[in-house]
């Protein structure tokens, strides 16, 4: 689905790329794709994958989504998959991602909306797992909250979808455009 929003004349940034699997799949649909993650170990795995399966225009770099690290107005699209619920400050992270976009650029995200899960998970299971050191900090917002956070940054929602069985996926797929 993401490829329909990309083109071979675009420079793309992915934040929170993990081991680079998605970047390896999407990079051929772009001019260049810089895939980043705050974990040096994840980036090392991604670079090993890239060495085994070279893709023109794809590079990996260690970078924190919560720290200003990207030139403003550089990218046609910023991708953030399975990441925004793991940041410490959603508005701050979105602001930085959007600053990296060119005017008219797209933010494309598929984000777990943990606040839509069984209430026992965000209110009991996650706090217990965090207390035992078995889970990271997780923001427990709903899809409407995520959409509001994106529009607070001045972005226009272009598409909001759910792809799971009968549309019940807790992961909201959102595409938003930065004003010209």
Report on this structure.
This protein has one domain: Rossmann fold. The mean pLDDT is 93. The protein contains 5 helices and 7 strands; from the N terminus they run βαβαββαβααββ. The chain has helices at 21-26, 40-52, 90-99, 120-131, 143-152; strands at 11-15, 32-37, 58-62, 75-81, 101-112, 156-162, 171-177. It has 180 residues and is of the alpha/beta class. The protein has a 7-stranded mixed beta sheet, sandwiched between helices. It is globular, with a radius of gyration of 16 Å. Helix content is 28%, strand content 27%.
Name some characteristics of this structure:
single chain, 180 residues, alpha/beta, Rossmann fold, 5 helices, 7 strands, 28% helix, globular
Write a short abstract of this structure.
The chain has 180 residues and is α/β, with parallel strands linked by helices. The chain has helices at 21-26, 40-52, 90-99, 120-131, 143-152, and strands at residues 11-15, 32-37, 58-62, 75-81, 101-112, 156-162, 171-177.
